[in-house]
């Protein structure tokens, strides 16, 4: 079983903080318990490198490093990991601490840092960085996330133990935000890169050590490159005629906006359950 469902980023976790724990943690553990009772052999949980939070010294964070979750989303992920570790089950449980997702996909999201930069470059001719650009962030293409999941659903306890949490990504995808923005500018030369040099530093900064994942899953390592990811996103958006300069406020590709709209219209209750 692969469990991906969640309130899926920091902005949504902040807006729906009261239900983030219920959905991301308690419901996830309940799903795992039901899977164990049904005789499921493997349980894969989509965790997050955001559990490392602030790592101001720049040292890459490994699975043995201290965690410092800064948001409701990050707290929900580490709380779920801890609960899954306590389950009395024969299931092989893998918590994949994914880097920040990016890349083109059939269900595109633009509320992800690289996707946002490319969308802004295509629609507005501007790559807008709302911080000073100094934070480090690891990224992973959605196709490479699928490769990691493919490994996790079939790994044996010999590859990491009955219960495992592991950073899923690649060292070459540890990127400072300003360098990420400039990479988009190189791929889309018509776009202007605007960095808010006077903005407060974003405390969510961390580099990640992926050496354990490389050792355990050598045949399932990330294959995508930053350059090809940017150009694929650019080409897909241009092919679709994407020109919504106000996409952050009104685009259907922003999940928070859609959830808020469903709550406002009464389709969802404030706890995000389907309204009666």
TrEMBL record:
<dbReference type="InterPro" id="IPR001509">
    <property type="entry name" value="Epimerase_deHydtase"/>
</dbReference>
<feature type="domain" description="NAD-dependent epimerase/dehydratase">
    <location>
        <begin position="2"/>
        <end position="155"/>
    </location>
</feature>
<protein>
    <submittedName>
        <fullName>NAD-dependent epimerase/dehydratase</fullName>
    </submittedName>
</protein>
<dbReference type="InterPro" id="IPR050177">
    <property type="entry name" value="Lipid_A_modif_metabolic_enz"/>
</dbReference>
<dbReference type="InterPro" id="IPR036291">
    <property type="entry name" value="NAD(P)-bd_dom_sf"/>
</dbReference>
<dbReference type="Pfam" id="PF01370">
    <property type="entry name" value="Epimerase"/>
</dbReference>
């Amino acid at each position: 079983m692969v469990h991906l469902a969640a309130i899926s980023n920091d902005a949504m976790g902040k807006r729906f903080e009261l239900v983030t724990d219920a959905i991301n943690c308690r419901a996830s553990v309940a799903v795992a318990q039901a899977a164990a009772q049904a005789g499921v052999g493997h349980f894969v949980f989509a965790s997050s490198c955001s559990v490392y939070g602030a790592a101001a010294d720049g040292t890459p964070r490994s699975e043995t490093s201290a965690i410092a979750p800064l948001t409701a989303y990050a707290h929900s992920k580490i709380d779920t990991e801890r609960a899954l570790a306590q389950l009395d089950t024969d299931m092989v449980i893998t918590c994949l601490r994914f880097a920040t997702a990016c890349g083109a996909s059939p269900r595109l999201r633009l509320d992800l840092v690289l996707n946002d930069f490319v969308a802004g470059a295509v629609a507005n001719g501007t790559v807008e960085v709302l911080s000073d650009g100094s934070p480090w962030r690891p990224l992973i293409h959605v196709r490479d996330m699928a490769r990691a999941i493919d490994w996790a659903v079939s790994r044996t306890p010999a590859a990491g133990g009955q219960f495992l949490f592991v950073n899923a990504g690649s060292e070459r995808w540890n990127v400072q935000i300003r360098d990420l923005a400039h990479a988009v500018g190189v791929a889309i030369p018509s776009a202007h890169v605007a960095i808010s040099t006077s903005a407060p530093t974003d405390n969510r900064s961390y580099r990640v050590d992926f050496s354990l994942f490389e050792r355990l899953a050598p045949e399932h390592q990330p294959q995508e490159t930053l350059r090809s990811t940017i150009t694929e996103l650019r080409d897909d958006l241009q092919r679709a005629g994407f020109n919504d300069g106000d996409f952050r406020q009104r685009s259907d590709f922003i999940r928070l906006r859609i959830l808020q709209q469903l709550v406002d219209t009464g389709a969802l209750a404030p706890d995000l359950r389907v309204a009666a």
